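Protein in question filed below.

…
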Amino acid sequence: MSQSQLKADNKKLILGIDPGSLHTGYGLIESSGKTVKMVTCGAVSPKATWELPQRLAYIHRSMVDLIVTFKPQAMALEDIFTYKNPRGAIKLAQARAASILAASLSDIPVFEYTPTLVKNAVTGNGRADKTQVAFMVSNILSLDQSHAADVTDALAVALCHAGQEALPLAKAKLASHNRGSSWRRLSPKDLEALGYKIDPNS
C-alpha cells in the first residue's frame, strides 16, 4: 500500500522502539484509530564484540533504513525509568538517542510513554510483567508466532501510542499527565545550525 493510500484511508504507521545497546527491538503497526495490525517487527542486534560507538552507529543506520523503507508517521518509546546499574543506564540512553536521532533527522515526531502507561494500555494492569505484556500483544495483533521480549515491548509501546491517539479529546486531556512528551521535530534551520547541509530541493 502506498503512502498516499494510507493517508486517504486515515491510517497511520507507528514505529515502536525498545532500545538497547545489544538488542533494539522494533515493531511497526498500522493504526486506523479503530483497528490495528502489525506490519513488521524484529530486532537490531549489533555484534557484542563491537565497541559501543560501532554498535550505536549500527543501530542508527538500521533505524534510518527502517524509516526510509516504511515511512512511519510517528516513533514511540518508553520514557527513561530508574535503572539500578548506572553504566547500563548510560548505554540505554545512548541507544535511545541513536533511534531518536534517526527519527528527528527524518522529521518524524517522537513520543515517550511511562512504562506503567504502556502496560496499562496493553493489559489493563500497570504492573503487568513481560509475559503478560507479550501475551496481550500477541492477542491484540493476532500474531501467529512468539517473539522476543524486546520485540513485544516495542509493539506494546506502538500500541500504547495508537491508543492514546484514538482517545477522545476530553479523555486525552485527562490522560496527558501520564503521557510522555513529544520531541520537537528538527527544522531545516535546526539542522543547518548543527552543521548538516540541506538540499533546498528536497
